[in-house]
Amino acid sequence: MRVAVVGAGPSGLMTFKYLLAACDFLATDPESVGGTFAHRTYEDGELVSSKQLTTFSGFRLRVSDPDFLSTDRYVQYLSGYCTHFGLWKHIKLSTTVLSIRQRGNRSTHIITYQHRGSPQTQEYECDAVAICSGLHVTPNIPNIKGMAQFKERSQFGVGKTVLILGSGETAMDLGYFAMQCPTKRVLMSHRDGFLCAPKRVPDPVILPILGNKPDPNRLNVPIDSSSASLFDTAYVHRRLRDHMLLWHYYDVFIKSTLWLVGGSKYGMAHWVGGISDKRYHASKIFFSKSNKAIPYLSALYRQERESSFIQRIRSSLIQVPVADTHGRHIGMAPWPSHVDEHGVVHFQNNGRPECHLLKNDKVKPDMVIFATGYTQTFPFLPGNYPTSETLDTRSTWHSSDLSTGFIGFGANHESYAYQLAIDMGAAPGFWEVLFRDGGWYKLPLLWALGANFNAKFRIGGPWKWEGAEEVLVEELWDTVARRGGFFGRVTLSGLPMAMFGSINLVLWVLDPVIKVCEMVVSSQDLHTWVCLRTVEMGRTAEPLSHKPLNP
């Protein structure tokens, strides 16, 4: 089988590496970097996903690397990945895919591509295609012209007014950087609010009214590897797995915790630009894990919002420290409708407080930065191909065409990784973990209390790796052991495990009874349906009688 991988970011490289490795298992010959982290990064850019989840299981980062890598270090790591696994000789860089089409009865794909600087196009015929790329989104706002990539802080200049379009992680980074430069004014524009979360589990100060201070030397665990997997994604009864109870718990947990430690359910010290209530539920939100700009965004609103009696009591008992903005702030703004001939930006009326503040304000920016994210659009795919929005099999394939796969497009990592491991027989069972040689207590505890690290699913299964156990008990054990404080150990681990473990136990015990009840109800429904159909056909039905039906 010949497979074309479109995209050279982490998803593309990982897919490519395992396709090459599959050649060894399946006795086939191989035919056949950094992505956006290399080409659209900026000065002091940093990943928001932790190294614990970002690192490939079979090629580890240095122990000395921080929890969150700079984009430069991550691109260096991806380059090392290619060298380590011998991928370079198969990679064609600086190549644009122009089109993909199917030949005959979808048995082969024809890739038309062009190397940079070459006037000639070439074609490649393959049996399957892996799509691992996305496109940058540039919204159409009338009268904004001239585009250049933002790369370094010096581009902010001196005494300039900067308008940042977007409220995601890149926008938050750039807003914070702009505050560290001699800018005159900075505004951030959003469409329908946002929800920021810290990259690390917060360490609130208990009883700050007594003068207690945070420990500057303590680094809590990254928030994306802070939850225990047992009874959350692993060993979850199907009835609980298919129910919204888990999501409702985390929805209440998120909102109440954010309010308790920061005063607002929309984020810690997040007093403006909160996500709209109609979109705010744990099952469908996307956290922006870059929140350094939040104190600057909330600076104009914080004093008024925190002055209430309840807020004063709350913040005297528990509070996550808020950074000092030294009198500087970022203005919040609605989404622009257009820019007039004088260069003044006109904003949409979203009915929020920031709209009222800007009502009589003339905003004439010297610089507009598009930090509007990415979308999964693929102009090289014709209409008869599936799209990332229509996938019905593990967010990767459409059942009508298993020769076209989409890799790396949005899913909840914890549940997704575990379900994939079950699908391919790589999820270890408790007894399998318990009776292994290494770390007689560390491995079972990490299996239960740790997040779904990739190395967990290489203890056994089709991609078994001898180094997996050492990575877990030597490297990743530190992540679980470092999880501290009431929130890290109780609310993120102990409480969910106790609550959902009990529910799972009850479901396992009562499942046979529930099945019998369902069968009885189902048989009654069937009997009722037969009777109704009989009446519809013009016959006389007597549901409780065994007499033959009269014509």
Automatic annotation (TrEMBL):
TM stretches of this protein: none
Alphabetically ordered keywords of this record: FAD, Flavoprotein, NADP, Oxidoreductase
GO molecular function, one term: NADP binding
Gene3D superfamilies: FAD/NAD(P)-binding domain
Pfam families linked to this entry: FMO-like (PF00743)
Keyword NADP in annotation: yes
Coiled-coil segments on the chain, per record: none
Protein family according to the UniProt entry: Belongs to the FMO family.
Name assigned to this protein: Uncharacterized protein
